[in-house]
Every structure is written in C-alpha cells, then in structure tokens.
Write a structure and sequence with these properties.
- The protein is of the alpha/beta class.
- It has two domains: about 1-65 and about 390-445, Urease, subunit C, domain 1 (Roll); about 70-385, TIM Barrel, CATH 3.20.20.
- It has helices at about 45-50, 90-105, 110-125, 140-150, 175-190, 215-230, 240-250, 255-260, 280-290, 295-300, 310-315, 335-350, 370-385, 420-430; strands at about 1-10, 15-25, 30-35, 55-60, 65, 70-75, 125-135, 155-160, 160, 200-210, 230-235, 270-275, 290-295, 320, 400-405, 435-440, 445.
- The strands form two sheets. Strands 6, 7, 8, 9, 10, 11, 12, 13 and 14 form a nine-stranded parallel β-sheet that branches.
C-alpha cells in the first residue's frame, strides 16, 4: 500500500516536520518501507505502480496524515463510568464506585460488551496504542487481549494484582498473594501465545495496581515475574497526597524508591501520574530508563497537583500522555494534549489570585502544543519501547487521517495556513472524533474505508 498526502509529525521534541504530497510505502508486514517527497527518485513511478495495482490511498484537500496516538494509562473496566463520580475524593471514588464496578467483570458477558465498546471508541479517537489495566479477573483480562487483537488495537495489557486486605475490599481483591502471582504469569503466557499475535502487537504487563493495594510479598513476587519474563510493568506512582503519604508511612520512602526496591522500575515500566515525585525520584526514574504517563485531565480531579512535565522533559525523562479512563472524563488523547498545555501554564503562572503575580506560580513550567503532541506520539512510544509514533522507515504504520471537510466541524481555516505548525496547532485544539476519517494500526485500516 502507498499513502499519498500531506504528512505532519513531531519526530524531535519541540519540532514539527511537514512533507506535502508525501508518499509513504507500507510493506505486507505493516511497516513503513520508504517515505518519498516530490522530485525524489522513483516518486512518479511509484504513484503509477500503486495506482495500477489498486494500492494507492490518496488524501484529499484539507486532509492530513498524522501518527496514531499513544495512550499510556487506561483503566479498561472503568469505561462504563467515564464522566461520572468525579466529584469524589480518590479514596471514596475507589471504594464507593470503582471497586464495585470492576468486581462485575467476573461476568464475561458484561466484560465483552464493555471492552468491545471501549476498544472501538479508542480506535475511533485515533488511539492506535492503548496501555490498559484489566481487573483481578484472569479470564476477563484474557478476553480484553483477544478483543484488542481481533479489532486491530495495539495494546499493552495487565491483570491487576491487589491482595492487601487492609486497603482492598473483601469483594474485590486477589484471593491470595499466590493466586495473584499465578494469574499474572498465566496472562503473560496467554497473550504471548495468542494465535495471530506472533508479531507482538498485544503485549503483557505486570500490573500492581498501586502500593497501597499490594502486600510486600506481592510486590516482591511481581518484581521477580517482571524480571523473569522481561515484560512491561505498569503501576501508579505518587498520584495523590493520600497515596503518596501512605507509602511514606508504610515504607519510609516515596513510591519511586519503594518500587525500585521491589525491582519494579525497569526500562519497560510505565509510572502513572507521578505528580509528587522529587528531583531524587526523577534521577532514579531516568537511571532505570522507566517512563511516566502524564494524565493531565484526571490529575485535575484526583491528584490535587500538576505534574511538572517541563521539568521532567528537560531532565530527559521518557514522558507520554494518558487518559486515565475513567479518572479522566474523556477517551481522547487530543483532549489531553490540550489539558497538558493548559495545566503547565497554570503551574507556571499560579492559580491563587490573592497571591501577587510573579510569586504565585512555578517559573519555567510551561510546555507548548508541539511538546504535547510529541508526548502523545513519540514520547508514549519511547516509554513503551515501540517503533511507532512517527513516520520513519522500519517503523510500524500506525496513523490517522485528519479531515477538515466533515460537516459541522470546529476545524476551520486550515486552507488559509501554509505551515505545518499552524495546521498541527489547529488540529490539536479543534479536531474532534468526527475529524478522524481513517485509522491504521500496523498497516491495517481499523477505521474508515
């Protein structure tokens, strides 16, 4: 297949590359084999050959080819309650709403209905890579992996481990530490041996929900499993004052240092939120080559703090974006691009009007739309160690077409702008699900025709 059109991506942090009338050639395995600009060798010949073979996909006027979006933090079973219960504090939200909902996933019919809806919605919103927490239920989490594979969703998926009787309700926790560890191993084996998953489009993850939900025995066992299988790890890190303070009281150190003690900080680890991490924590995370899922929308509701994205990026940490469904009220990574820029401005300028300007904020905290989109694509991909997120030879063709021509769109005036910077900025701030006309994952079209 050959895709022809205006290509926009951010391969380098803070920079945009635009190629008008680009030709992107995708091989049978779904990888990009070449990218050509007008006037380069074989450009015209390739158009003729692809068109003759019925393999040319040509974008129209006011359509743009962008990389698919990477969501580093999704609670898949929470999809039914997205946009609700956001008035509650985190602890109450978990105990009163979230744990009772997640407990329902022992019903595979209920699980199938909601997981299929979630995956369809993620793909429709341009999310080509989804990093998902399941529930404590092994069979339901296996089903989530199978649905992702069937529908073409690239995914990293883990069965939640939570066995701490002091923090987890009787109706929703692993029956024992051993069963939680055995279930984690069983899921890893299941995903790696799924027919049709030989290329590893769906990957397993060790998933301690968070330190409060796990005993030390569970955390130690999960660290050993992560090392044994060399697989991804995902967990929460210093999300809120409640969780952050709990870990300090229990272990005498911050989440980052505690997770490191249990061998859960690796180059395949995704730390959700990390709002309250210290400079020492950042150094440890960078040394371990772990990454952070910045969830700007959900942080508004449950973290009571703004993640210092500018500081983390300047220190060279791997940072991507996450929706944190359903702690975040939107399944759109583009919405979280907007929120990441907005929250960084609030952190820099401050929000308390009773404090004098120049004294109420944290200087040098802002990020811009280019850095936000980089996190939504390249940053997320690098955190997961995947060759997606930008257009480059040898990378998987995970992409979407943004269409300004749809009816009732907020995406106006693109034909008046010549620069890729202007087009991308307008897309980030005004594109909606209706503007995402086509989506591919590894060369397979999963939305559009």
């Amino acid at each position: 297949m050959v895709v022809k059109g205006t290509l926009i991506h951010t391969p380098v942090l803070g920079e945009v590359e635009t190629i008008k009338h680009a030709l992107v050639t995708i091989d049978d395995s779904g990888q990009i084999s070449s990218i050509r600009s007008p006037g380069t060798a074989s450009y015209d010949e390739e158009i003729i050959a692809a068109s003759s073979a019925g393999q040319l996909f040509e974008l129209g006027a006011n359509q743009y080819l962008l990389p698919g979006l990477v969501d580093l933090h999704i609670h898949a079973p929470q999809w039914p309650q997205v946009g609700t219960a956001l008035h509650l504090p985190l602890y109450d939200w978990l105990q009163q709403c979230t744990f009772p909902l997640e407990a329902k996933y022992d019903d595979l019919g209920f699980a199938r209905q909601n997981y299929e809806s979630l995956v369809d919605n993620l793909l429709a919103n341009g999310t080509t890579t989804a990093t998902c927490y399941g529930t404590i239920h092994l069979e339901a989490t296996k089903l989530l992996a199978e649905i992702c594979l069937d529908r073409g969703q690239r995914a990293v998926i883990g069965k939640i481990a939570m066995d701490n009787r002091q923090e987890c309700p009787d109706f929703y926790r692993d029956k024992s530490t051993t069963s939680g560890l055995d279930g984690t191993r069983a899921l890893i084996e299941h995903i790696r041996n799924l027919p049709g998953n030989e290329d590893g489009r769906v990957l397993p993850a060790v998933t301690p929900r968070f330190i409060p939900g796990c005993t030390d025995e569970m955390l130690e066992g999960l660290g050993s499993i992560a090392d044994e299988y060399n697989c991804h790890v995902q967990t929460h890190c210093s999300e809120s004052d409640w969780e952050h303070d709990y870990v300090i009281e229990r272990h005498g150190v911050n989440d980052t240092q505690s997770l490191d003690r249990f061998q859960l900080l690796t180059d395949k680890t995704v730390l959700a939120h990390s709002n309250l991490i210290s400079d020492e924590d950042m150094s440890t995370i960078k040394t371990r080559a772990s990454g952070i899922a910045h969830c700007p929308l959900s942080n508004v509701y449950f973290s009571n703090a703004v993640f210092p994205a500018r500081r983390a990026l300047d220190r060279g940490l791997k940072v991507g974006l996450g929706t944190d469904i359903s702690g975040g009220p939107s399944p759109s990574i583009l919405h979280n691009c907007q929120a990441s820029v907005n929250s960084s401005r609030m952190l820099e300028e401050g929000v308390d009007p009773t404090v004098r300007r120049g004294e109420r904020g944290t200087p040098n905290s802002r990020i811009d739309y280019l850095e936000a989109f980089w996190m939504a694509t390249v940053g997320g991909a690098e955190t997961l160690g995947l060759k997606v997120g930008r257009f480059e030879e040898g990378y998987s063709f995970d992409a979407m077409v943004i269409d300004r021509n749809v009816a009732d769109t907020n995406l106006q005036g693109l034909d008046d702008f010549q620069s890729g910077e202007d087009a991308l900025q307008k897309i980030i701030y005004n594109a909606e699900r209706r503007n995402i006309a086509n989506v591919w994952v590894q060369g397979r079209m999963v939305k559009g025709s």
